[in-house]
Task: structure prediction
Amino acid sequence: MRIIWQYEGLRHFFEFEAAGGIVLALAAVAAMIIANSPLNVWYEGFIHAPVAIQIGEFAIAKDAHHWINDGLMAVFFFLVGLELKREVLIGELSNVKQIILPAGAALGGMIMPAIVYLLFNYNEPEFWKGWAIPAATDIAFALGILSLLGNRVPNSLKVFLVSIAIFDDIGAILIIALFYTSELSLESLAVAGLCLPFLYVLNRRNVTNITPYLLIGLIMWIAVLKSGIHATLAGVVLALFIPMFDRTDPEHSPLEELEHDLHNTVAFGILPIFAFANSGISLEGAGFAELFHSVPLGIAAGLFIGKQLGVMFMCWLIFKLGISTMPKGMDYKQIYGAALLCGVGFTMSLFIGGLAFAGDTTMFDERLGIIMGSIVSGIAGYIMLKMSLKDNASGTSVDLTRPH
Result:
């Protein structure tokens, strides 16, 4: 009986909307504790353990950290690609009128943090490459914090925040492709390009068996890995060819089925592993200069100050110009609370930070800025939304009856 109760408790936890964010946070905290304890030797040994796959003359040899960031995170980006395609075809992004406000807010929320970061580092050109680190929003954490407010949250607010995060993901994908690409191998790119016609044919012939897509996707991932473009982008490209609809069975959606199957694996497996491997910040010997270096300080300010300024300014401008209207059930206080939550960067910020600096400096640790900015933004966003929703609950034209 006790085992059944424990199983039911675990099942209810994993069904909780904030569960993904909680597991992600626990993984990050565990990494920081271990990195500042005698177990740090074990931690460093784990993330730098060499792992190689070799078939004849062909070999891929990387440490565990790179396999996690280049391999496991490709699955995360694949899931992001599936979600983007679904949203564009049948979701929130299928209606042009509905996407103007979150698209504008996301654009402002990417540009202003970069400006704030560059202002902190204007006289240090070698650090400018970190400009994109505070531009991202972590949807798992942001939605996790939002879910803590319960069913008082209007559905329009959740849709607004999710839509901003989706456009943030699109922006991050483009940024990685355009600005964080090393020297290109044309041969490898040609191999990756040859995979596209095969994927197109599978899609056009209504092949709903996912296996051939994944096999070709694996070949494409290896080619992109060798090309100089970050390998995770292969996951996004592959997702675009997964059929949304089965033309022989309208009730069957291969894309939605695959998205459902991958969700828990990514949320409770891949992302926590990524957080654990990338959040182990050792504070040993860290002094005032390291903690308040212009890079981590610029990242933290970009996430907390830049995000809210960018999102709020663009929303105000869009309303002022009459391009879009205030979403039903929302007001400026709730938009401001959402803007603060957009400053929770974490996963994507850590990912871009690893690409930007790749451990090539001992003067600072950009992850400190990501964690500081994300924590402050998350707390401030939660407090602001709790206050605004409480105000609405006591008076109010806002419809809070719809469940989030």
Residues 88 and 160 are 15 Å apart (CA to CA).
